[in-house]
Amino acid sequence: MTFVAEEIAAQPGCWRRAIALAETVAGLPAPGERVAVVGCGTSLFMAQAYAALRESSGRGETDAFPASEFPFRRRYDRVVAITRSGTTTEVVELLRALPCPTVALTGDTATPIAQVADTVIDLGFADERSVVQTRFATTALTLLRAHLARIPSASQVAEPGVAPDRPDLPGQAAAALEAPLPAGAAGRTRFTFLGAGWTVGIAHEAALKVREASASWAESYPAMEYRHGPISVTDERSLVWFFDPPPPGLAEQVERTGALVVLPELDPVAELIRVQRLAVELATAKGLDPDRPRNLSRSVILSRAFLRSGEAGDRLDPGEA
What we know:
Pfam families: SIS. This is SIS domain-containing protein. Helix content is 37%, strand content 14%. The longest helix is centred in the last third of the chain and has 18 residues.
């Protein structure tokens, strides 16, 4: 069995530990704080999901950014960083420069992130050997969701249907491991994932998993944006997977293209587990190693010379903010 397959299977237990940890953890945003959440790759998509869920449930204004694109001119009460390795250059350098309180969720506390974050939340029990992230990302998001469910809303204005609740997430994860994959999914060659609200980040992560692990053609969008161009490439080779109930008429429109339509059956993050399993199955069928995708490493670590060169992108010197 590959490392990633073992790590996918470990998610119910990891989520259970994360929910328990949320009862005592310190440093996460309080109701009403203006918060930014940062990460890179998979961690960015978890940041996007959490940010949308926190703000839409009335806990406070929340933005998500790639660590390399942080807007230093904006003022935040707190910045939350998600970093499995604790070594990703963009995240470490950003937290080193920020004047506001910071908290990092990481899988390895014996790394530079522990020196630059004001508070470190140790998720080492969910760390991974595979390059491809699965259980760390979903465990971090589960902890953040559980923390939201514990704290009161800062506002009486919350969007309908998005207030954090207390679903049996470990049970949902276990169900996702047992549920059969959609019939015919492994025979498709184009994969599109659609979400709405906080599940847009989940859709982006689903597409990344399929791309990384199996080198397949995969994309993701907010569901209502799908009609605005992307549907033009959908055909009988396609799979279109919804993480939220589809907008009226969209599923039927997709079916008319010949695509396989998959509707959500479980909690959105549990649905992501099913996509993780599909990604591994696709990789295995192609003879690929899903633990070590081509051109990827566990962490992106850049030299200071590279950062000074400007090749990493122009950014405002935090001292000018």
